[in-house]
């Protein structure tokens, strides 16, 4: 009996990997209600850990530093609950009326097209531009946001323990992988990249949200704080997040004021997104995420389907973690490589950097 060739064994390993990965994904989808608060806690811990470390360097004990950080977060949540939650409830209460006003504007648009002599395809346009679908998307986001507020204590406690345990977690990692320093460095590198991504996106999103709030306040748009808060969150969604964030303010500018006001708001959002997205963010992000644009876009769609709006917000770091896992095994390294932003120009730049490093 002839032994199995290594090629066949590699194929079997690949199939086994994907079967195991598929089972894990089914379990994760089934337990999404438990995983989503954990992901939000990890995001909060990554954002607040630098502040706690800064307080510790100033001589404060760990528990006091953590108490101040969590107290600050609670104060922000209370302010959010007082001001933004009221606007969320008001918007949901007036949802039917706002949807009706948008439908009336669409009817006027279809009538104008009819007067201009264009073919009568109102029913087809209505299927393409459905106020139900557009506004239901925001209602779903606000509903999930409200649902997570019921998990506030769970999220805060989990984030607190993650912050406190971060140093010990690194020590455990060093102990487990003491005989594999290359893999340990790879894990630390991807963790540092995810950490940097969250910090940069938080700063960029805050700048975007404050700029949007100034525009909405100037034009007296209803629920300005709510749309600014959504702008902050949606800015974490790659490619389309900033576009989605502009839809409700522009629609309300059209309903409450005029076409010209709606146009000015759209131009304001376009200017903010261009300055932040094309100038500030690339400058702060540095060498990039290691993911191709195609991967970033489709990962946003996949994780959005998987975990809802939270998955869309966390799509980039989740994909970076999956890519790291794929790169650890010979049988799946080619998949992780396909997800990357590798190019010949990128490879040449890396080689030139290595040569300069060797010379120095």
Q: Report the oligomer.
A: single chain
Mean pLDDT over the full residue set? 76
Envelope shape: globular
Total DSSP helices:
16
Q: Which structural category do the helix and sheet elements fall into?
A: mainly alpha
Largest sheet: none
Q: What proportion of the residues form beta strands (DSSP E)?
A: under 5%
Helix content: over 70%
Give the strand tally: 0
**Helix-strand string:** HHHHHHHHHHHHHHHH
User: Which value, in Å, is the CA radius of gyration?
Assistant: 24 Å
Are there runs of 5+ residues with pLDDT below 50, and where? none
Measured between the Cα atoms of the first and last residue, the distance is 57 Å
Written overview of the protein:
The chain has a domain at 44-176. Helices cover 84% and strands 0% of the residues. The chain has 16 helices and no strands. The N and C termini lie far apart (57 Å). 22% of the residues are buried. The model has no long low-confidence stretch (mean pLDDT 76).
List key phrases describing it:
16 helices, 0% strand, 360 residues, mainly alpha
Question: What is the strand and helix layout of this fold?
Answer:
Layout: H1 6-30, H2 32-57, H3 62-93, H4 95-115, H5 122-128, H6 131-149, H7 152-176, H8 181-218, H9 224-234, H10 241-256, H11 259-285, H12 293-307, H13 309-313, H14 315-327, H15 333-339, H16 344-359
Helix pairs in contact: 2-3, 2-7, 3-7, 4-6, 8-9, 8-11, 8-14, 9-10, 10-11, 12-14, 14-15
């Amino acid at each position: 009996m002839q032994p199995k060739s290594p090629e066949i064994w590699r194929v079997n390993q690949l199939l086994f990997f994907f079967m195991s990965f598929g089972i894990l994904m089914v379990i994760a989808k089934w337990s999404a209600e438990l995983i989503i608060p954990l992901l939000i806690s990890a995001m909060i811990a990554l954002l607040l850990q630098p502040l706690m470390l800064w307080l510790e360097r100033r001589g404060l004990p760990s528990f006091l530093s953590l108490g101040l950080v969590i107290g600050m977060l609670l104060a922000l949540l209370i302010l959010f609950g007082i001001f933004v939650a009221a606007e969320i409830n008001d918007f949901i209460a007036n949802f039917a009326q706002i949807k009706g006003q948008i439908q009336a504007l669409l009817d006027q648009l279809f009538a104008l097209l009819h007067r201009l002599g264009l073919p009568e395809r109102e029913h087809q346009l209505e299927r393409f531009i459905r106020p139900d679908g557009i506004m239901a998307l925001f209602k779903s986001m606000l509903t999930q946001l409200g649902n997570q507020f019921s998990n506030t204590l769970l999220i805060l406690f989990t984030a607190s323990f993650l912050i406190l345990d971060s140093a010990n977690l690194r020590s455990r990692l060093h102990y487990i992988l003491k005989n594999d320093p290359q893999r340990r460095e790879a894990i630390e590198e991807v963790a540092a990249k995810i950490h940097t991504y969250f910090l940069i996106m938080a700063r960029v999103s805050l700048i975007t949200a404050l700029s949007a709030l100034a525009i909405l306040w100037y034009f007296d748009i209803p629920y300005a704080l709510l749309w600014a808060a959504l702008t902050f969150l949606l800015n974490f969604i790659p490619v389309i997040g900033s576009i989605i964030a502009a839809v409700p303010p522009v629609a309300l500018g059209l309903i409450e004021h005029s076409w010209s006001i709606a146009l000015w708001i759209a131009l304001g959002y376009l200017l903010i997104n261009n300055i932040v997205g094309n100038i500030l963010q690339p400058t702060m992000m540095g060498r990039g995420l290691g993911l191709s644009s195609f991967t970033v876009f489709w990962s946003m769609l996949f994780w959005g389907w998987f975990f809802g709006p939270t998955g869309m917000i966390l799509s980039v770091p989740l994909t970076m973690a999956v890519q790291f896992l794929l790169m650890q095994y010979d049988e799946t390294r080619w998949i992780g490589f396909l997800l990357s932003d590798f190019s010949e120009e990128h490879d040449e730049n890396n080689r030139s950097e290595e040569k300069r490093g060797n010379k120095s």
